[in-house]
Design a protein that fits this description.
The strands form two sheets. A five-stranded parallel β-sheet has the order 4-2-1-6-7, with helices on both faces. It contains five helices and seven strands. It is globular and about 40 Å long. With about 130 residues, it is of the alpha/beta class. The longest helix is centred in the first third of the chain and has 17 residues, at about 10-30. β1, α1 and β2 form a beta-alpha-beta unit. Among the domains are: about 10-20 and about 30-80, no CATH class; about 100-134, no CATH class.
Length: about 130
């Protein structure tokens, strides 16, 4: 475990993922990058969710960076736009990450079917160790 990608959105599951990342990075001396994907939905009238814009993601990234810094970890911040699940998958591959840490929102079967589960997609598509926290 040398290179960790933390998917962070500021929610409770993401905060658990952040604490797990701190623990892993300290134990293994791994580098950390934090990703917060601004959802982008091509072909729709409003491609970017107005309630989930870049300003919100920038704030979340700074929150994660500050917490990591308090634990002696300097992190790279990544703020791409796109489909969250596929973007995390792409960044993990292109960045050569060997570990991805992500929180699960605990969606029920119907919500997963309608919305899709980012953590489930990442766990089944990323060629790395994936740690899912609740």
């Amino acid at each position: 475990m040398k290179k960790i990608l933390l998917a962070y959105d500021g929610g409770e599951p993401a905060k658990h993922a952040l604490m797990t990342t701190i623990d892993l990075a300290q134990k293994f001396g791994a580098s950390v990058s934090v990703i917060s994907v601004v959802p982008f939905h091509p072909g729709t009238r409003a491609p970017v969710d107005p309630w989930d814009d870049a300003t919100v993601h920038a704030k979340e990234l700074l929150e994660a960076k500050q917490m990591l810094r308090e634990h002696g970890i300097e992190a790279e911040l990544l703020e791409p736009a796109g489909d969250p699940a596929r973007t995390i998958e792409r960044v993990a591959k292109e960045g050569g990450f060997d570990t991805v840490v992500i929180g699960s929102r605990g969606l029920g079967a119907i919500d997963r079917m309608l919305q899709g589960s980012v953590s489930e997609h990442v766990a089944t598509h990323v060629d790395a160790t994936v740690v899912i926290t609740h």
